[in-house]
Write a structure and sequence with these properties.
260 residues, alpha/beta, 7 strands, 43% helix, globular, Sc_DH/Rdtase_CS, NAD(P)-bd_dom_sf, oxidoreductase
Length: 260
Amino acid sequence: MSLSRILDGKVCIVVGASSPKGIGDATVRMLLDHGAKVVAAGIVMNDDIIARLLSGCTDSEIPRSNIDGQICDITDFGQCQALMEAVVDKFGKVDCLVNCAGIVEGCAFSEISSDKFDRMTNVNLKGTFNLCKAALQVFERQGHGNIVNLSSLAAQRGGGLAGGAHYAASKGGVISLTRSIAREYGPMNIRANIICPAMIDTEMLDGFSAKRQNEIVESIPLRRVGLPSEVAGTCLFLASDLSGFITGATIDVNGGAHIH
């Protein structure tokens, strides 16, 4: 099999694909370029976003039929179930769920209200739970499946950059949740892995001054921020059969900012 087509025959769902600067956007294009049929899902999704995703692919010959868009509020389990069933109805199966959806907020611990904490965990942790539970229902029927959840460096080191303690806690929960899925569902031929990005050139960095960004870059061994495509490449690897014996793993994509 050519490495340029390592996802031929695979059906992948990428959730959190609405932002043009986001990791989800880059992941949709990466998976399409490598042969997958992809459903791009998000709280906002329309034909304009689908056209943008297709136009950004390296392979200009990808047919429109290889991509579909679905609106999904991941805080609503019913919508997550509907997403999975819509993909099965259209493509016949789901091979991989890549969950890039999430929110971030930076503030001091003392400024985190109950409402802020609930909103953060409702999207980042409960939303991940909802998506995984809905996907696992399909995977169990099929006898196979693959989950890739995005967490964060903040979960590993206790915040410290863009997100507050509630963000770090919600993303820490994603790590534990994914590892639990890997352990419980491994015997059913279902894999689950985590990616922990840090300082990726997305909208998350827009709130940093140039001076602050330079200070952070100086602390990164590779001396630069990461590209969304570099996280997408890790999603591609985990979505493919090249990673077939990897489950319950946490993959760092951080330029060496956290070596442990």
